[in-house]
């Protein structure tokens, strides 16, 4: 009994010694800064960990990071390891602020840093910490949303243009959209930009170069305040560094910078009710209207075409053309709708046409009565009504129209309604109704089910209670499930951050580590490449798959010291998804 007690005490103290060796702490470059300065904070650990969770930087804006660095060295046979996550913070205002606790999981135990107090004072004459490449890039590149009209009418076309301003101090090599705006409350049409035309201009009084990246024509479909989502880009920015080549020329550092245009709100006015014509169908813009035929005279059984056409600038796709009124003795087919429009910088321009095919059957003269088309003119702020001229169709040869002697012209088109004797075939003549209250509840099926239900609930509650207790006691199983869930989460996060090397490889490394913890029960402290290779070989994993997994870990480590292209990141993501799938299948 004493020996067991002694072993337990020794084990307890050994665990305390091991835990005391783990260090996870936060360090800041300065504890007092000016409101126009920035501070760097680093979260450092002396053992590798998983699932790093930064604090809420309340009172600050993150302008750089996270930057991950790892140092591993051997001095006199003693290993020294350090890993850190760094951020650059910009204060939102003056005052005393507290940076909360960061968290990380090391060897199955969660560690937290100590909160840090930072004092922000008035602006200083010579701010420091401003030479970081990400900070320089954020200060010299801006994405602006330009709206042609922020107070349009309903269905009035407006243009939304996204302009990228770049300072002469930096260069932009490429860009790609990360989050494109959606316009659910608008009918929208993008304008094709064949080439990017770089121009010189100013931004907030400073000389800048700018380029129009995207332009969209919007037609609001609702009134009131409508929001326009921002456009977010990932831009490759070349920033001059402090290093120079052997000829003394300044070297440039390429960083990935995300830039977003600010969200905008427009206020849409309803169309006025005063003076609205009876046949108004929602046309807004500036239009011309015409009704024409390709023939004025023809023979019976020949066909002609009558075209109802609206042309101009406006919401040509969002209203209906007026219908032709034709004599009943003419055979008329459903109109063919044609649209000839193009979207330019001033909105949608072109025409829409309804083409009617008309076939007269008898000789005579048939008028096409005038048709009216109304629209709202934005420039004058009033409704306009356009009317066509009366057209006459002259059918020269064919049988004469027969008019019954006992009927007038007004009743010549009437037909007798013939009764088929089945006018009431949809009515049920035998509904099979039952009087209410005839069926009793006592000794019915529902009566016996409600009697037996409590008896069935007792064994079910016992079974589910045991299952729940087993799940609560299965600590290892819960850790495996959690690690597997985190592996999938970080792999998905890596896919979203393709184009941002720091965030991509950080998420990819977390995904690989959590996969090993979930599938092979390997702790982070045991994740050396030799150890991983040995375990995968023991599990009879294919040697090629094992080599690919080790290579992915090496790529994650190398990405901290060198830049990676988007193609390399896409290749590593595809390789990771394939390797994890193969290992999971073999296991």
UniProtKB/TrEMBL annotation:
UniProt keyword Transmembrane helix present: yes
The keyword Repeat belongs to this UniProt entry's keyword annotation: no
N-terminal signal peptide: 1-20
Entry-linked InterPro entries: BatD
Domain of life per record: Bacteria
TM region positions: 445-464
Alphabetized UniProt keyword annotations: Membrane, Signal, Transmembrane, Transmembrane helix
Pfam families: BatD
Stated name of the protein: BatD family protein
Organism: Mesonia profundi
């Amino acid at each position: 009994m004493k020996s067991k007690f002694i072993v337990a005490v020794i084990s307890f103290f050994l665990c305390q010694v091991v835990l005391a060796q783990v260090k996870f702490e936060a360090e800041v470059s300065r504890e007092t800064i000016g409101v126009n300065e920035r501070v760097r904070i680093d979260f450092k650990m002396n053992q590798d960990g998983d699932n790093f969770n930064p604090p809420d930087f309340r009172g600050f804006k993150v302008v750089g990071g996270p930057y991950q660095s790892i140092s591993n060295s051997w001095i006199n046979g003693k290993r020294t390891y350090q890993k850190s996550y760094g951020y650059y913070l910009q204060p939102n205002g003056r005052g005393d602020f507290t940076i909360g606790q960061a968290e990380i999981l090391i060897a199955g135990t969660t560690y937290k840093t100590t909160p840090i107090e930072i004092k922000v004072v008035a602006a200083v004459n010579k701010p420091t910490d401003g030479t970081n490449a990400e900070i320089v890039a954020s200060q010299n590149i801006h994405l602006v949303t330009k709206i042609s009209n922020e107070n349009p009418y309903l269905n009035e076309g407006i243009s939304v243009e996204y302009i990228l301003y770049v300072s002469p101090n930096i260069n932009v090599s490429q860009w790609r959209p990360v989050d494109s705006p959606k316009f659910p409350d608008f009918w929208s049409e993008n304008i094709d930009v064949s080439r990017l035309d770089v121009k010189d201009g100013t931004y907030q009084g400073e000389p800048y170069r700018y380029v129009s990246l995207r332009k969209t024509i919007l037609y609001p479909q609702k009134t009131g305040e409508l929001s326009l989502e921002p456009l977010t880009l990932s831009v490759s920015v070349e920033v001059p560094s402090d290093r120079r080549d052997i000829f003394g020329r300044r070297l440039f550092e390429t960083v990935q910078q995300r830039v977003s245009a600010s969200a905008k709100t427009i206020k849409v006015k309803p169309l006025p009710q005063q003076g609205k014509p009876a046949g108004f169908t929602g046309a807004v813009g500036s239009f011309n209207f015409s009704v024409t035929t390709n023939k004025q005279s023809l023979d019976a059984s020949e066909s002609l075409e009558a075209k109802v056409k609206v042309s101009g600038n406006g919401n040509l796709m969002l209203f209906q053309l007026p219908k032709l009124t034709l004599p009943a003795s003419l055979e008329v087919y459903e109109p063919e709708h044609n649209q000839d429009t193009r979207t330019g910088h001033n909105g949608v321009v072109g025409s829409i046409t309804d083409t009617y095919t008309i076939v007269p059957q008898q000789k005579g003269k048939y008028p096409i009565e005038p048709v009216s088309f109304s629209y709202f003119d934005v420039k004058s702020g009033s409704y306009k009504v356009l009317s066509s001229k009366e057209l006459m169709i002259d059918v020269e040869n064919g049988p004469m129209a027969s008019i019954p002697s006992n009927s007038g012209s007004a009743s010549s088109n009437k037909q007798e309604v013939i009764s088929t004797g089945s006018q009431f075939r949809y009515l049920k003549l035998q509904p099979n109704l039952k009087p209410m209250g005839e069926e009793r509840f006592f000794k019915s099926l529902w009566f016996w089910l409600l009697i037996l239900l409590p008896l069935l609930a007792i064994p079910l509650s016992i079974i589910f209670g045991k299952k729940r207790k087993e799940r609560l006691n299965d600590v290892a199983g819960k850790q495996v499930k959690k690690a597997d869930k985190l592996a999938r989460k970080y792999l998905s996060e890596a896919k979203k951050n393709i184009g941002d090397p720091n965030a991509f490889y950080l998420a990819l490394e977390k995904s690989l580590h959590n996969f090993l913890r979930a599938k092979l029960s390997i702790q982070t402290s045991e994740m050396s490449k030799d150890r991983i290779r040995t375990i995968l070989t023991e599990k009879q994993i294919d040697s090629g798959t094992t080599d690919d997994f080790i290579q992915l870990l090496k790529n994650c480590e190398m990405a901290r010291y060198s830049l990676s292209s988007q193609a390399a990141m896409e290749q590593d993501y595809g390789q990771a998804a394939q390797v994890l799938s193969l290992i999971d299948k073999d296991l």
